Amino acid sequence: MESEVNGAFLPDLKSRGILPHIEMKKILFLTTGGTISCVATEDGLEPTLSGNDILTSVPELRTLGEITVKDLTKIDSSNVVPQDWSSWATLIGDNYTEYDGFVLTHGTDTMAYTASALSYMLVNLGKPVVLTGSQVPLSLSNSDARSNLELAFTIASSGLPGVFVAFGNKVIKGDCCKKIFTRNFNAFESVNEAPVLFFDKNGIKKNLPDRRNVGGFRVESKMEEKVMALTVTPGLKPDIIDYAVQRGYKGIVLECYGAGGVNTGRDNLLPAIRRAIKAGVRMVCVSQCLFDGVDLSLYPMGILAAQAGVESGGPMTLEAAVTKLMWSLANPALEKN
Question: Which residues contact 266 (CB under 8 A, 6 or more apart)?
Answer without folding.
Answer: none
